[in-house]
Predict the structure.
Amino acid sequence: MAQIDAFFKLMNEQGASDLHLSSGTQPLLRIRGDLERIKYKILENDDLRSLLFEITPEDKIKEFEESGDIDFSHEVPGLARYRVNFFRQLHGIGAVFREIPSKIMTIDELGLPLVMKRMALLPKGLVLVTGPTGSGKSTTLAAIVDHANRSRKDHILTIEDPVEFVHQNISCTINHREVGRHTRSFSAALRGALREDPDIIMVGEMRDLETISLAIEAAETGHLVFATLHTISASKTVDRIIEVFPSHQQGQIRATLADSLRAVVAQTLFKRIDRKGRVAALEILIATHAVRNLIREGKTFQVPSVIQTGKKYGMTTLDDSIMDYLKKGVISGDDAYSKCVDKEKFKSYVSELVTDFTEV
């Protein structure tokens, strides 16, 4: 048993999502979105290096010494897996561990809409799960892949950096590939994927033009592709993808994306006030004919209006999702107001109006 396992056990007991260890300060846990200090001594650089390197593969130690930061995954049997990042900072070494539960929660357990199950059963196309860092994208994506794993008889290929949720073969055959360990890059893995007879490809993150281009190409050629992006709304997701390409290619990529896109799920996490935990408010865009025409014509600013009128297709706006939680007493009015789009709709629910001075 490694010394650091005591921190992982505490993390699990406290229901923390992240563990922060940095030279020159006490350890911290992120619990329900807030960082809280652990009653422990201030970590000295040499002590922390020994603590961290005890669980670090030799090749990753070498990479860290050369580059100053690394990503990898670590597993404590019987407890959980962790997504790990080491970095150098002013006072020495630092590290952040994100807990990945060993049990994959289902779409029903997460309280996600039924339309998410339909996304898992699509024959082909591109489905994007988006949101800021730490908004639960990986958890949502894992639940969708889990439903596909239980409902289909296909080959699922995941490409991640690092591998997070580990799916067991149920009705599908699943192969997990880790960037830097099993393949050089997302783009290299995607190029190889087209020769590996996958039905479903899950891309941990669409980081650059080449990866985005290959993911769209895979969706175009008859595969179902799930991927994540760091965008905060459905319309901004479409814009972000198109803006990655050079201006002379953007007209063509609009047409290609319009044909291949099937859905965008943009999510934001909220603290629950009814019980411990957090909950995700979702904006869901389904790529109907109307949506595809808007993408082709470069009128993505009209997408929010289509979402408002598309409830029969399973679409929902972020504000409607937030309001639903608010009226059920799941989240606070202040939290709802701080993360909503239309502030006027939520003013009456706020205990003390705090205005973003940049919006005045």
The first strand starts at residue 18 and ends at 22. The chain has two domains: 5-101, 107-316.
